[in-house]
């Protein structure tokens, strides 16, 4: 049985919103002592939604590339979060804990600086729309 439509409205991110979400996720990954990725859009491989490139073993980090154009907001944010999970090679229990913490990071503003506050507000706005979209398609 199929609940809801598999097609969803497209509410994509602009570059400023993408950067705000990326900053919020990177900040939270750092607080959780995870490998902190870089984010970019679009992936260099045509036709894929997300790619992950790990840097050489002696370097820490990686690059998560996410397609933005023409995709639902929830899918974009979820791909960014899952990229952090995959890059860090987390086991299932740790992945669930980190995934929840990353979503929460987009929903809370905890800094005083104006730039960070604006980024957090944007990230929180994006996350709330993404969460509402996901909730509307799950019954």
Short synopsis of the structure:
The protein is mainly α and 139 residues long. The protein is built from 4 helices and 3 strands. It has a 3-stranded mixed sheet.
What does this structure look like?
There is one protein chain. By secondary structure, the chain is mostly helical. It has one domain. 51% of the residues lie in helices and 9% in strands. It is built from 4 helices and 3 strands, in the order H-E-E-E-H-H-H. Strands 1-3-2 form a 3-stranded mixed beta sheet. Helix 1 crosses helix 4 and helix 2 crosses helix 4. The longest helix has 23 residues. The radius of gyration is 15 Å and the shape is globular. The protein starts with 14 loop residues before the first helix and ends with a helix. The N terminus is likely disordered.
- Using only C-alpha atoms, the radius of gyration works out to 15 Å
Strand order of the biggest β-sheet: 1-3-2
**Overall spatial form:** globular
Query: How far do the termini sit from each other?
Result: 11 Å
The helix-and-strand class reads mainly alpha
N to C succession of SSEs: HEEEHHH
Helix residue percentage:
40-55%
Task: List the domain count as a whole number.
Answer: 1
Number of discrete helical segments: 4
Show unreliable segments: 1-7, 109-115
DSSP strand (E) fraction? 5-15%
Mean pLDDT: 81
Counting DSSP E segments of at least 2 residues, the number of strands comes to 3
**Main sheet specs:** 3 strands, mixed
